[in-house]
Amino acid sequence: MADDVMNQPPPLAGGNAWRGDPLLIQLAERFSEPVRKDLDQLGRFVLTQEAQDLARLVNIETPKLRTHDRQGRRIDLVEFHPAYHALMRRSVANGLHSSVWENGETEIGRRHQVRAARFYLTAELETGHLCPITMTNASLAALMANPKIFREWAPRVTTRKYDQAQKPPVEKTGLTLGMGMTEKQGGTDVRANITKAERAGSSGFYRLSGHKWFMSAPMSDAFLVLAQASEGLSCFLVPRILGDGSGNGFRFQRLKDKLGNRSNASSEVEFENAIGEMVGEPGQGVKTIMDMVTLTRLDCAVASAAIMRAGLAEAVHHARHRKVFGANLIDQSLMQRVLADMALDVAAATALSFRLARSFDEAAADRGEAAFARAMTPVVKYWVCKIAPALLYEAMECLGGNGYVEEAPLARYYREAPVNAIWEGSGNVMALDVLRVLERAPALFEEVLAGIDRDLGANGHGTISVLKAAMQVASTDEGSARLLTEQLALAAAAAELKRLGAGRIADAFIETRLAGQWRNTYGMLDSRHDARMILDTLYPLTS
User: Fold this and answer.
1) How far is 376 from 352, CA to CA, in rounded Å?
2) What span, in angstroms and rounded, lies between the C-alpha atoms of 153 and 320?
3) Could you please report the per-residue DSSP string of 24-37?
4) Which of 270, 218, 258 minimizes the C-alpha distance to 423?
5) Cα torsion 538, 456, 504, 339: sign
6) Least C-beta-crowded within 10 Å: which of 13, 297, 374, 530?
7) CA 369, CA 498: separation in Å to the nearest integer?
8) What is d(CA 378, CA 92) in angstroms, rounded to the nearest whole number?
9) In angstroms, what is the C-alpha Rg of the chain?
């Protein structure tokens, strides 16, 4: 009968995303027991039907812009479905927006890694609502350039309470922060910004007039905004609602009709004499936001690794339960090798992202880690984010038509995949940043290469020679920057897998990614590598 359902895999729900991820468990083995229990609970939550429904709803019931109320008053309000607020409430309660800044955080020395683990599990569920979470966390780094502002705002941000009310910041129990950087005429070239900032008397405040082409999370309580002051491009903190409850000159023009996540709103906005306070030194706006940009790039990598993990988990689950030509897909050698080949990239991307988080934690006390954090942030962001769309497409193909429909989470993962490669610096921007470090501080790469060489062991000597040659070429040929960036990423990922003791998984990654074998799509593993072992190790079968 037509209503009979046969040979359809059950939904991937009811398990535990933490317990089902041996690599993530290993990366967190030094965390305290309370943190590990928290990750266990979070892993269980993200695979509940309730959580999956929330993720589905926030991408179906999209944000709506209301510029005016029914009497014609300007309100500039973006309304969200209750499911969005539910996800925001949980992520804020988990400290994803602030834990690295909290005095009470117990994981001293591992704050970025602990947050990355929580962020990773949450991103496997739904990444759109994490945009304001990321921006809030990263914006606090920029606010440190003005101790007065940081003292005023940080305690209200780090309350772990989500308050969606449309009220002045001083009246709220918790705050979120957003950013307004790019303009239609400049995009990445923020120095081309034309938004003006003029002093508002002798109070130290400025009035901003102009526009922003992309301003995400438009219901944030305040925004870091770049504008041209008399001293040059500067950074300002601009609240959305003033202390008396009136609007602060924000005029939202429209919400972007984006390719990717539907849950988070991105807007175009005009400023009409919006009041802001300068953050950092006059004329040093780009310098002021760089610490914020660095933290955002880490989140881009972690989130991309997470959605690749979630997408491939769907594909492996499907292959284990779907019969084709009389046998389970997972038992057919070609499918095994495709899945295992993808699993190598997901494991490498995850290990590399957490390697970057570790360098953030240890940079203050270790020169080599400081070098890794500065030199490798654009490298990690470039490679991890850039491989996500192709990998998630391949995962979708493993499900065939079942993966192509919007009812399957893979469609959502696939639509989400490009944004992290574009946000906070696209591929060329990352590659040029690598060249900038190579030109201005080549000793940083000497430290990085020494660490890669040490962790790769016997496998590393030829790789280091290749990297040094690529650096030599890139120093005089800007057009080769992507070659160097990708080679650095692959080498660092391989080194981290070796350091973690990944054994044959690390060996397979090294031989297929560093040994120069021809490859253009997934499934290029040969029989020397045990595809089934790779899958069963990284994606253990759970009841």
Assistant:
1) 10
2) 50
3) HHHHTTTS-HHHHH
4) 258
5) positive
6) 13
7) 18
8) 27
9) 24
Q: Which residues contact 470 (CB under 8 A, 6 or more apart)?
A: 480, 483, 484, 487, 488
In this structure, what token pair is assigned to residue 109?
Answer: 């020395």
- If you count them, how many residues does the chain have? 543
Dihedrals φ, ψ of 26, to 5°? -65, -40
User: Which residues have a Cβ under 8 Å from the Cβ of 406 and sit 6 or more positions away?
Assistant: 412
**Which pLDDT tens digits describe the chain residue by residue (543 residues)?**
667 888 888 888 889 999 999 999 999 999 999 999 999 999 999 999 999 999 999 999 999 999 999 999 999 999 999 999 999 999 999 999 999 999 865 678 999 999 999 999 999 999 999 999 999 999 999 999 999 999 999 999 999 999 999 999 999 999 999 999 999 987 788 888 999 999 997 778 999 999 999 998 999 999 999 999 999 999 999 999 999 999 999 999 999 999 988 999 999 999 999 999 999 999 999 999 998 999 999 999 999 999 999 999 999 999 999 999 889 999 999 999 999 999 999 999 999 999 999 999 999 999 999 999 999 999 999 999 999 999 999 999 999 999 999 888 999 999 999 999 998 889 999 999 999 999 999 999 999 999 999 999 987 778 999 999 999 999 999 999 999 999 999 999 999 999 999 999 999 999 999 986 667 788 888 888 999 999 999 999 875
Rounded-to-10 torsion of CA 455, 461, 462, 465: 100
Cβ 517 vs Cβ 528: under 8 Å: no
- Give the integer Cα–Cα distance in Å for 184 and 272: 17
* Whole-angstrom distance, CA of residue 309 vs CA of residue 20: 11
For helices 481-499 and 442-456, give the axis angle rounded to 10 degrees: 40
Spatial neighbors of 161 by CB under 8 A, at least 6 apart, are 92, 93, 173, 174
Q: Name the β-bridge partners of 289.
A: none
Distance from chain centroid for Cα 198 = 34
CA gap 539, 342 in Å, rounded: 12
| Rounded Cα distance, 342 and 395, in Å | 8
